[in-house]
Known about the structure:
With 112 residues, this protein is of the alpha+beta class.
Amino acid sequence: MDRFxxxxxxxxxxxxxWHGSWTKLRDTPADHIVNQLNRHSVEWFRxxxxxxxxxxxxxxxxxxxxxxxxxxxGQWHVVFEFTPPRMRRRADxxxxxxxxxxxxxxxxxxxx
Length: 112
């Protein structure tokens, strides 16, 4: 059995840096989400980089727009900066749906 068996387990220590329903993502000011992500970033890396803060903000904007166009957006759960069990790298964003999982790796501002 994996350490993360339910969505609620994502909030456990070592879990997601931010997670919530589509509605929570839509209704929470982007700056509040970015601030929470930054708090975790500082804990892990001892500094918050301006480029990363901008990237998270852009990810939030993109996800809000994209999820308005999917059927039944209320069934989606959004997870930022999460390391799945048995993996060594954090995923930028994981979208959870009753019928599947989508892992997203963003390259916001990349030139190549």
